[in-house]
Give the backbone structure.
Amino acid sequence: MTKIALVDDHTLFRNGLKGLLLANPQYDVVGEYSDGSQLIAALPTLDVDVVLMDVSMPNMDGKTATTLALNQRPELKIIALTMFGEQQYAQQMVAAGVVGFIHKDSDIQTVFDAIDAVVGGERYLPDYCVGEAQSVGPDALTDREIAVLTSICQGLSTPQIAEKLNISKRTVDAHRARILEKTGCNNTASLVVYAVTKLNILS
């Protein structure tokens, strides 16, 4: 069963989506939050696989919440929800680390498809988002991701990086996977080239 958290400031929308998700035996809604700060506060003890994240919220918006959430839990799968159709919102959320992007006027099957896709390791993004994800600049990487990337460029192994940054090997692997996804790189060699050309690491 896929465990899902809902982050949206509109109570009626959140309750309606929760009801539709719970009607499907494949999903369980384990948390509901009206803004990003509430999710961040709950995240250390929250057992969740997928977060459905509203883009526009008071107190803490979806972009900021996504960045902070993935700093804590890089393995999280975050799908952005928005009423806006403009390309810029999709690109901003992709740069923050979301792996899915759907409009709130989508039918529930689209939501199911997006959840299943990201749980399966795929992305669920409009075509114009994919190109953006493969050409992100250094500002799209979090401080922890930059630290991991720097360590990779220094030739450190996963256990060595874990010890250096005081994180688990699994977390290192999750950060590396997210760095590859954000940068569009396919292997360590291409990551090093990216680090040198975009971040001036080792130069």
Summary: The beta strands are 2-7, 27-33, 50-54, 77-82, 100-103. Residues 169-183 form the longest helix (15 residues).
